[in-house]
Amino acid sequence: MSIIPGSDVQVTPMTAEQHERFDRDGFLIIPGALSPDEVAFYRDALDRVYRAASTDGRLAADGSLHQLSAVTNCPEAAGLIDHPATFSYVWSVLGWNVHIYHSHVDVHPPLESRRPFRFEWHQDGGRQNREIETDPRPRLSVKLAYWLSDVSEAGRGNFKVVPGSHKTNWIDGPPRRDVEWPDPEGAIEVTANAGDVVFFDRRLWHARSDNYSSFTRMAMFFGYTLRWVAIRDDIAPIWSSDWADQLSPVQRQLLGGIKDADGDHLWGHYPATTPLYGWLKERNLLDPANPPLKP
Ligand SMILES: O=C(O)CCC(=O)C(=O)O
Fold it and tell me: Residues with beta carbon inside 6 Å of ligand 1?
């Protein structure tokens, strides 16, 4: 199995204006992050995952696939986790002490009949939203959503968000998720072309929408957090695979596999041997806002 590297794009940190918009809206669109050839490459890879799941009878009843642990199940997706057109957004916001804790690849063919109602609105992070007491809760993680199909018009299973909602701990919702309820005020369907990426704050209230169009919706999602937050993905199979040696040191860090790391190292105590720290330092891109601990 061969994993292609990302395209050769000049890497720069987020601008002050991008930080401002991200802080205001809770998300940014990165237009044209992937070239048409890259879109074709990742679509083909995802299509193979989909066909294998179909053969094994692992698709949902509506023919969709929501497969967790993206790189474990689609090794080619490794090229997206530190893609030069998008990864700078992650380290510009979270710094160098990061890994991917939750990821998924998704295929949603057109729905042939109406699905029973389900209120899908949520913030990411699961129990972080119950067990952290501040208001607003802290950001803790961000996500990249890569679009591999055209969702440039609403109604194609678009990603829905409430812009600016990331500092709101609660939104009005139904007593149970299957009780019909309107979308929150201000909700929009994000439109994007294949190859565009949405970068969002985990606290942004968001939801998948149903795809009643004639397009199959294809996307890959990667959630990044600080390395002292546990990885939810199933990463063990990566480290016993025959392709793990193709991963770069930064990709290994992102997938929770820094070689010979002890518990303290896995938390971020040793920047000098943390690949992303070194990678940023070499390029003079370290942000003084994310210093190492004092020795
Ligand atoms: O598939 C989507 O549009 C939404 C995905 C989502 O809810 C998530 O990444 O947490």
Answer: 106, 124, 143, 159, 206, 208, 221
